[in-house]
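for ur thesis appendix - Prepilin leader peptidase/N-methyltransferase. copy paste whatever u need, i formatted it the way the template wanted (i think)
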Amino acid sequence: MSEFLILLNAQPYLFVVIAFIFAAMLGSFINVVIHRLPVMLKREWQQECNQYLNEYHPEKVKKLGETELNKAIDPFPEKYNLIVPTSACPKCNSKIKPWHNLPILGWLILKGKCANCGNAISARYPIIEFISGALVATLAWHFGPTIDFVATAVLTLVLIALTGIDLDEMLLPDNLTLPLLWLGIIFSLTDGFVSLNDSVIGAVAGYLSLWSVFWLFKIVTGKEGMGYGDFKLMAVFGAWLGWQMLPLIILLSSLVGAVVGISLIVSKKLHSGNPIPFGPYIAAAGWIAVVWGQDIVNWYLAHAI
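the 3d part is after this line
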């Protein structure tokens, strides 16, 4: 193992290529998470609602027919998770062959269409795979074969999943954000980017920073400007990078969000007043801060003095 690490340190380009390929393969699984996790959560919420109905309003359940009664007891009898059922075409339900699941290449081989029925396959799948590979390859070049690379690669891949889900559903699931929060605190125990003290303070400050903005905006306008998932995602970066990096992340995410939002309104792809997910901008700003945050801060301080 040590000889392999020595080889990777001696051949940084080889490490970058390996990181890209491996991350692109994981990108295929991230596509599954983006699609299935919201469905799994919705099923779980429906089952909880039905359980509540069965326990506290049995008289309503008794009025249902046999079919509706079965749905009320177990609305989703079939097994559905991140592994089962196996990937299939949504139109013809034909199983996807293993070589068609090759990251990026599989989509190109199929020319973006189902091999059985010709139904179009979204270009989003190879795009997610490529982004996963490219971002992790960037981390490989920046950190080299170190524990910092492994930790930030995990962070990056989960952030990609969160971004995809938020764009689709306006949702940042606790199933993903909370493990990242704890991982950031644990990482600080292993000589991570910041001390444990700064990590804990950063997590609290990250959450409260957007929580305060949320309530100020709500008091002034009577509307909710963002979701609680955004608070937790900011807490994640506070845990990983400490409270010192939060102003940069807030500034970058706000600038990018404002530019994108105004561009969408000008291009008439978004009507004024319609909500847009803020999580992707926090994720992008936080990732930039992970890789180049200290360089950006140093550059600003050097030119501001």
